[in-house]
Amino acid sequence: MLELRNISKTFFPGTVHEKTALDNLSLTLHEGDFVTVIGGNGAGKSTMQNAICGTWQPDEGSIELDG
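and the corresponding structure tokens:
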């Protein structure tokens, strides 16, 4: 099981370039689930994937894999 609980990520906080990519995102996937993530440019798809892969830690929330 993969569980994202209330994850948030803001790039360049406190600057004129501040961009909130994820805002309180929660997602639970169980074994055997198949998911397709779609969205426009800047919607946060790659940011979510990078959080799951551990490229960076979310500013808030948690990510849990297999408990």
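(Above: one complete record from the training split.) Residues 45-53 form the longest helix (9 residues).
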